[in-house]
Amino acid sequence: MNTAQWLTANFKTGFTQVVGIGGIGSGKIIALEGEHTLGRDESRLGSMLKARDYCKLHIVEHYIASLMGAGRTPASFRVVAVGDVGDDGIGASLIQQMNAVGINTEFVRILSEYPTLFSVCFLYPDGSGGNITTSNSAASALDQTRVAACRPLLQEAGNRGIALCLPEVPLHARREFLRIASECGSYRVASFAFGELETAKKEGLFANIDLLAINREEAAAVAGVDGNIDQVLEACATGLSASSRSMRLIVSAGSGGVCVFDQGRWSKHDAIPVEVVSTAGAGDALLAGTIAGLTAGLPLRSGSSEGGERELSSAIDLGILLASFSVTSPHTIHPDANLSALVKFASDRGYFLSTSFLQACAKGECIPVASPSSAISGS
Questions:
Q1: What are phi and psi for residue 374, nearest 5 degrees?
Q2: What's the CA gap between 20 and 59, in Å, rounded?
Q3: Whose CB has fewer CB within 10 Å in the chain, the N or C terminal residue?
Q4: What b/e readout covers 76-91, taking b as 16+ CB neighbours within 10 angstroms?
């Protein structure tokens, strides 16, 4: 069995870095009593869980850094976070945790006048749920000037860099980030909160996105229809194609698997059956695994395969594998998630890695990239 600890970034067909903006924060998870959906005027009892909850940028970049071995050497794959936290102890702890996994936090600012972003995640007995996130946190202070500071990093990587644009920071900052990323030739990956989709659509943000990750409900909102999944997907693709003919879509549907729109057609990919502990963070894990797969040079989705459904050979396969693994933990970042654990997890369930996937796991050529500080000083 391959014993590589991380994936090798492919600097010819993959990517050399990820620079991301989005929420950096923590939260609490409450297990609600009763299966019915929480009502507008309802008070509901729930148990506070000892699970660790994190916000989107931290979750996605943690998994990417772990899978790609970010920060292991000066020439290793680079994962950079851009955002703000509060000067309240929690912010300092989060920065320390991000640094520990290899995320560069040089562009994470500590603000004394704001608290660190905080969210409350609520779970139903079946493992589904949602969250409520503070809107007046340090994350709300991220502005266009701060976003512009990371331009040298995006310019240096060019079309071998990923610009990751996630929720929980102001939409105007994300708009500027996508604009700069477009000018620098970055591969632009984004997701949005449900309530932001209409505004993002009206403001033309979809035209500056190469890969959009949304869930089934968000796809229905984009499509403007509320039919079965096939009707939603067809209308969604039609609507977004008007904004960007080359955009690729990932639509997650929980236990129903994942749908991918690429090169003008949809493909459906089954979830890996597991006993679910919590679905919180699963969508972020799906996106992170997919990005890691693309970085290693894997195709977004597989074509025909001799290995059949049990062979893992694409970026979306890695995303589904990581998402399935993530729901076996009560935490939004599975503390044991790494490449070796994922390979064993897949093997134990009868899945195996394709030859191309195994080659991506092997040791390869180092990526010639500079540190973020040298990129800035040289601008």
A1: -70, -30
A2: 11
A3: N
A4: bbbbbbbbbbbbbebb
CA distance 124 to 30: 9
User: What confidence score (pLDDT) does residue 373 get?
Assistant: 37
Q: For residue 297, is pLDDT > 90?
A: yes
Model confidence over 247-287: pLDDT tens digits?
899 999 888 899 999 988 899 999 999 999 888 899 999 99
pLDDT value, residue 149? 95
In this structure, what token pair is assigned to residue 110?
């500590």
Mapped onto helix, strand or coil, the DSSP state of residue 95 is: helix
Domain 17-35+44-368 has CATH 2.40.30.20: no
Rounded CA-CA distance 54/118 in Å is: 8
Between residues 2 and 142, which one has the greater pLDDT? 142
Q: Which residue has the tokens 């033309």?
A: 204
In terms of Cα–Cα distance, which of 106, 112, 70 is closest to 91?
112
Q: What is the DSSP letter of 63?
A: H
Residues 6+ apart with CB under 8 A from 176: 144, 147, 148
Judge whether residue 379 has pLDDT over 70: no
Residue 17's Cα: distance from chain center in Å? 14
Question: 276, 324 in Cβ contact below 8 A?
Answer: no
H/E stretch holding 342: helix 339-348
* Alpha carbons 292 and 283: distance in angstroms, whole number: 14
- Secondary structure letter of residue 15 according to DSSP: -
For residue 268, list its beta bridge partners: 259
Give bridge partners of residue 37 from the DSSP assignment: none
List the domain boundaries for the chain: 17-35+44-368
- The one-character DSSP state at 246 is T
